Structure formats: structure tokens, C-alpha cells
Amino acid sequence: MKDSTPRAIRLADYRPPPYLIDRVSLRFDLRETGTRVFSFMHLRRNPASEATESLLLHGEGLDLQWLAIDGMRLDEDEYRVDDEGLHLPAPPEQFELSSEVIIAPEANTALEGLYRSGGMFCTQCEAEGFRRITWFLDRPDVMAVFDVRIEADRERYPVLLSNGNPGAAGELPDGRHFAEWHDPHPKPCYLFALVAGDLKHIEERFTTASGREVVLRIHVEPHNIDKCEHAMRSLVAAMRWDEEHYGREYDLEVFNIVAVDDFNMGAMENKGLNIFNSKYVLARPDTATDTDFQGIEGVVAHEYFHNWTGNRITCRDWFQLSLKEGLTVYRDQEFSADMGSRPLKRIEDVRLLRTHQFAEDAGPMAHPVRPQSYIEINNFYTLTVYEKGAEVVRMQARLLGPKRFRAAMDRYFERFDGQAVTTDDFVACMEAASGHDLSQFKHWYDYAGTPVLHVQDSYDARKRRYTLKIRQEVPDTPGQHHKPPFHIPFAIGLLDGEGRDIPLRYGDSDSDGGSLLLELREREEVFVFDDIEERPTPSLLRGFSAPVKIDYDWSEEQLLHLMAHDSDGFNRWDAGQTLLRQVLLRMVAQRQEGASMSVPEALVGALRTALFDEQAEQALIAEVLALPAIGYLGDFMAVVDVDGLHAAREHLKRTVAGALREDLLMRYEQLRETGEYRIDAAAIGRRRLKNTLLGWLASLEDDDAVFQLLLDQYGAQHNMTDVMAALSLIADSERPEREDILADFARRWANEPLVMDKWFSVQAMAVRPDTLAQVRTLMDHPAFALTNPNRVRALIGAFVNGNPVGFHAADGSGYAFLAEQVLALDPLNPQIAARLARALARWRRYDEQRQLHAQEALRRMISAGVSKDVYEIASRSLQEDAE
Ligand code: 7MF
Ligand code: ZN
């Protein structure tokens, strides 16, 4: 291994920092090769620390020029530098430490610390990137006031940005110039940022609720200046929303956003200077899809909301990551729900959670929302920390109700402003503001695994009594066995034969005519409802009130009844998904037995009814008509049969589309784009439904009239949403026009990397025999680069995660390809390599032959000597008790 034996970091070993850093002053002398960083900082012993050993300041890859304490240069025997950083044997109680280091942003392909992207300099410090810039106590509970001075060539880097408010700026000799920035808010170094480049910006003025004026700017490379408006609109909406819903105002004179092309993640909330992956800023109707527009709105809001939940109040240590991430995801989800359609947003979020987070929670990488140990923190920016973490906040909001939740949040902001705190501190505010005892609820933070609720019901007609028996089971996960029962908010309704909600009462709570919130606390509980006139249809876990799985023996009649009538929009959709799942799994079983696959008439009827539902939003109808993903369905099989699942999905699509062809065509025609392009919720819903219908129709492969629709929709070039919907269906086909259309698209968009990413993805996800060979060929395309994370995700990531049939090919070719690419990427960018390697984590779910191929691929990674990032993923995946 490159790193000596990777060591686990444990929550139980947390100790307060030995020293505190009150102020730091940085000067950057930016150069094309060899950038000098001068640092001056004030350190004092932390009264809360008992540490007496030598002081370690983190630092990696720093070429130290000189070091001084209180202005006195240190001799080489007065300090020690190793892999971890700079050790000072016996520093004074208080001192000024100054130093100069040389770093090489031009050679930084890991995109952590200070690096170059295109023609600019930029930074990414979360979680532990600051130590690649200069010596520091690189941990979130050390918060300092930063002063920054940047010096660079004036021609090539006219724009110089850092955190906080701007200060002096001016000319220097040799065609250079400088700018100074002061951030008055103490912050951990992971929120430090610097940008230097030849950028253009758009600008807006925002007046806060209390009347202060803030200048908002979005900076991009000059050719992208016409793609920033949507991001700016989203920012202004997010700022207003946080004032209205949480009473939180922005707290600096300027707010800058910069878009960069080479970025490991979505974006970063650096104080006053958010840095974004350009994918989450740049959009124009002809270059970006509705999903892209919505992604931008959500990510801009997410990063802005971090200003309070993350920056003003930050994490004590990285085990508390969900304190800021779960909470901020919850906030951005609620914002997006308010901006668009609430039930639709909930469906999208739950779908992500169920297909991806549930899989993580059931695999070798399963970990609690607050993990207990890690080898590489970058591997714990997971769906569990983010999405399950958001569900854990959502459950508390639900248990408290809106008024008390707001009071608890006010208390949190009041009590912990300016501090680095824990999830326990957060929950304590929820308890104090509500009087609820949440000690059992905290299991959600500490135990991994998705709880299963086994539900049985019975109806006694003579007593007019309906009984629900619920047994909860929290599965074992690596290193965690025999878990205690959780406190679970379980919202239900009971429908009568007409589909109306039966008014319910249980203990102190009643259903208000709608749903009843039951609070489960025991391993097994029985709920009895009296005066129920007829056997009701249960609507369980309404609105997905907890991140659990439900095990209940649904009949087809019950699901059809819920699909048609449930007053809870989410559960109406979910009933349809459960029905589709049951049908598809039955079809897979039929196929395995060599029988022919059958699609029940009732399902076709229900889909037809949904198609013509005049009450429902168009986007919701589209969701009802969306087939559950192979990845989700596989979770319900003892051994995942990818080919069977694919065959069943295709057969079901063809059967339904054949039966409903005329209806689908008619609705498609009605929904065709007529007037001007708009991106409001209604227009998005309309396009989504139209393109879903096109997808069903396209399953009629030999239908020339349908194929002509695809060609026409592509040819109209009305907007990128419609173009991509048509293009991906064309790319999936075996028609001769396929190659011409793909070539046409590449010609049009050769100079737009983010659009070319879409072109890479549709080809990587096409279900065709030669897809892997195509992917290999595309890696040589001039628009592809292994050094750019977006390109890697668009091509390799799309094949590995978005093409189950190709990736899980029985001959192991997909797995071998993955191992090869992980090994090629690892020396360049270990974070991206490790993310890719996760695709093999759940290899135990497949048949024996595939298992052997997968193990071989994982072993190959480990024995090649990889980064600790990849090592942690591959070694945990192979561990004995992993699943
Ligand atoms: C919306 O969380 C939701 C999640 C860390 C980097 C952005 O603000 C962030 C950063 C990762 C994974 C997902 C997201 C982010 C990161 C993200 C972005 C927008 N603090 Br890693
Ligand atoms: Zn975040």
C-alpha cells in the first residue's frame, strides 16, 4: 500500500484541541509553478485540553522554507516534519507562528487543497484539504478569524477572491496585483477558499429583512456568462426563504459564487465564497434539462443554507458531519418542495433513499448517521449521512410539529452560534423546546441498518374492531448486532370501501379526518381501533414518515384501492409502485421457471386510469407511470437476477404500451410543446409526463410511427429536456439512424463539456451488446479526460451505476473494467476512484459466478497498492461479516 497500514479514527477517542488559533493571516504568491504561502498565526494553549505532548500542526506535501516562533527562526532540530505534519516539541503557552511553504497547485490532480482548473486557481478544503495549503490544526473545532492577501499576475488573474468582505486592492511591480479579504466570522479552516482567474460575473443586490444590502455575484469563465441567471434566481429565492422560514439573514457585505469545471463534488459552502461544480451553476434551456435546472436550484440553496447550518454553527468533529449535512439537506428539500410540487419532491427524495441509501445500509459499507470510526473521512460523505440524516431531522420535525420545531431551531441558533457542536446538542434543543424525551429516538444516529416493520392486521366484524400488530426488526450490520427497538413515527390512515379516510383516534392523538401519527417504541406493539364498520384498507407509513421498510402482505385489490383513492398523495403513488414491484417480481419468477411472463389486466387498467386522471398533477402521473429501478427491485430477491429483472421490465413495458398504444399517443400529442419554453413546475410536469409516455411507446421497437416521433422530437431541438429524452431512447435502439443522430449531437455541442457529458452518458447506459466496447472507445474521445470528475462520472460512472445489465455481465467484463479504471484513477484522484469502487460493494447479492468475478476485481484493487480511500472501500467489501 502507498500509505502505511491505514489507521482507523474513532469517535470515542475525541479530545479537545491542544491549542486554539484565534487569528490567522495568509499571503498567497500565486505562480504557474511553485506558489508560495506565507502564514502568520496566533496560537494559545486550550484551557479545556489536558494534552501535554508535543504539538502537531497538520500539513501534507508542503515544502517548508522557514519557520519562526514569535519572530525567531527555528533551527531544524527545534521541530520535526513527517507524513502527518509539523511537530513542535515544547511550544510556549501562547505564541505567534510564522512560516513560508511552497506548494504545487499545477500538479494537484486530487482536486483537494489549492489546485488549477482550466485557467484559474481554486481551492477545496472540506474535509481535510487545508493541510495541503499550509500548517494548521485542521479540525473543525478550531475556529479562527482569517485575513487573506492574494498576489497574482494581473492579466491572467484579474479576479482575486477569498472569504468574507473585500479590503484593500492594488498594483504590484512586474505586472502583478493584489487583493485583501477579511472574514470577521471565526471559522474552521475547512471553510477557507481562494479563487484567482479571468472571470466574468453577473450581479444582483439583495436587501435583507433587517435592511442591510448585500452584493451577490456569480463568477464564471467568460463564455459561460449567458448561463448564470437561473443560479442567481435560485440564490435570491433561497435567501428570502431562509429569512421567512427560519428567521436567518445573511451576514456579510458580499456573497460570491464561482463555477469551476474540475470539482470532486457538487459544491462547497466556503464562508461568503461558495465554489460550485459548473454542472450546478450553468444552465440555458438549450443546454440543460429540467432535472439540471432543479438540481441547480437545490444545490444553490443547500450551499447557501449552510451559512447558518454548518458555518455559523459547525461540527465539533467529522463524526458529527450529519449535524450540518442532514439538517441542510432537510432544509434544501423543504425549500425545493415550496418552490415546486411538494408531493413530487417527496417522491423523488424517497426514491433516492430507497434505491441507494437502503442499499448502502444493507451492504458492507453500512454505518450509522453518526459513524463510530473511519479510515478516510472522504468515504463518509454518504447517502446515509446526507439523506438518512435528513430523514432523522424530518422525523423530529414531525414528532414536534411545526411550531415547536421552529422554536427548537431558534433555540439551536441562539444557543450554539459561533460554536462547533454535536448531534447530541441538536437533539437537546429539540427536547428542551418540546418537552419530548428523545433518548430512544437517538438510536437513529447510533445504529446502522434500515428497520423493517412487519405488519399484520385483522378485522373482527362482530366486535367491529380492527387490529394492527407491528413488530420492528433492526437488521445486524457490520460490527453491530442485536439492536434495541427504535422510536418510530408511523403515520397511518384507514380507508373505507368508498376510499374515504375513516376518522381515527388513538390515545391522545386523533387523525383530524386525515392521518394518525402512531409512535412505535416497543419491539412488538398492537393497536386496536374500535367502531370500524367494515374491513378497512390500511394506508401505512403515510408520507414516508420514517426511513423504514414495510413488510405487509398486500393484495392486488388493496393496492388498486389505495392507488385510486388514498388521500395521501405519496401513498397513492407508493401503492402503484408496490403493485408494479409485485408484478415484476412475479414475472421474473415465471421467467426463471421457463414459463411465459404475464401482466395482469388489472394493472393495465390502473395505469390507463392514472393516465387520464384529471385531478392529479402531470408530474405525479409521470411518477405513477415510472417503473421501479432494477437496483431497487433486486433488493426483494434472494439472489439478484439482473437479466431477469431487465427482461421483465421490458416485457411489461411492451405489453402495456401495446395495449394502451392509442391512449399513449393521444396523451403524447396533447402534451406536445406548443408555446414558449418555461421552467415552472407545471411546464416541467408536462414535459416529464410527455417524455415518460414516449419511453413507454419506444418499447414498441418495430413501430415505425413511434420511432418517427422520437426523430421528430429530437429534430425539433425545442429544449434540452425533450432532446435528451428522445436521444436516450434513440441511443437504446438498434435503428440505423442511431449513429447519425449521435454524431449530429456531438457536432452541435463539441464546445460544451457539460452537454457532451450527456452524450457520453446516454451511450454508456444503452442496453446493447457492444456498450462496454463503446465506452472504451469513448474514453479516447477528445472531449473525455480521466482527470475531470464530471467526465468520469458521465462515462465510467454511468456505465457502472446506470447500466446494470452491462455492468453485471455474466462474464465479469464489467467488474474487470471497473477494477481497471479504479486503478487508473487512484493515483490521480483517490476520492473519485473510491466513489467508483463502491459499485462492487454489494457483490454478495449476485450469483456464484458473478461473485467470483467481483471478488477477483476487488482483490486486484487491494493487491495493486492503492490509496487509503480505495483500500477502505475494497477491504470492507471483502470482509467476512459484511452482509
Ligand atoms: C446538495 O455538502 C446535497 C448534497 C460537501 C461536499 C456539498 O455542501 C456539501 C459539501 C458531497 C456530497 C454531496 C453534497 C456536497 C458534498 C451535496 C450538495 C448539494 N459540504 Br461530498
Ligand atoms: Zn452540504
Hey, roughly how much beta strand do the residues contain? Answer: 15-25%
Percentage of residues in helical conformation: 25-40%
Question: How does the helix and strand content classify structurally?
Answer: alpha+beta
Bound compounds, each kind once, are: ligand 7MF, zinc ion
Number of strands: 33
Total number of helices: 26
Unreliable residue runs: none
Describe the structure.
By secondary structure, the protein is of the alpha+beta class. The chain is built from 26 helices and 33 strands. It has an eight-stranded mixed β-sheet, with no helix packed on it. A hairpin with a 2-residue loop joins strand 5 (63-69) and strand 6. It starts with 8 loop residues before the first strand and ends in a 5-residue tail after the last helix. The mean pLDDT is 97. Bound molecules: ligand 7MF and zinc ion (ZN).
Concise overview:
With 883 residues, this protein is of the alpha+beta class. Bound molecules: ligand 7MF and zinc ion.
Main traits of this protein?
33 strands, about 900 residues, five-stranded mixed beta sheet, eight-stranded mixed beta sheet, binds ligand 7MF, alpha+beta
Provide the fold topology.
Layout: E1 9-10, E2 19-29, E3 35-45, E4 55-58, E5 63-69, E6 72-73, E7 80-81, E8 85-88, E9 94-103, E10 113-117, E11 120-124, E12 144-153, E13 159-162, E14 165-172, E15 176-187, E16 194-197, E17 200-207, E18 213-220, H1 229-246, E19 254-260, E20 267-268, E21 273-277, H2 290-305, E22 314-315, H3 321-339, H4 342-361, E23 373-374, H5 383-400, H6 402-416, E24 420-421, H7 423-434, H8 443-446, E25 452-460, E26 465-473, E27 488-495, E28 505-506, E29 509-510, E30 516-520, E31 524-529, E32 537-539, E33 549-551, H9 556-565, H10 569-592, H11 601-611, H12 618-624, H13 630-634, H14 642-671, H15 681-698, H16 704-716, H17 720-731, H18 737-748, H19 753-765, H20 771-778, H21 789-802, H22 804-807, H23 813-825, H24 830-837, H25 848-863, H26 868-878
Parallel strand pairs: 2-12, 18-19, 19-21, 22-24, 25-33
Antiparallel strand pairs: 1-23, 2-3, 3-9, 4-8, 5-6, 5-9, 7-8, 10-11, 11-16, 12-15, 13-16, 14-15, 17-18, 20-21, 25-26, 26-31, 27-30, 27-32, 28-29
Helix pairs in contact: 1-2, 2-3, 3-4, 3-5, 4-5, 5-6, 6-7, 9-10, 10-14, 11-14, 12-15, 14-15, 15-17, 16-17, 19-20, 19-21, 23-24, 23-25, 24-26, 25-26
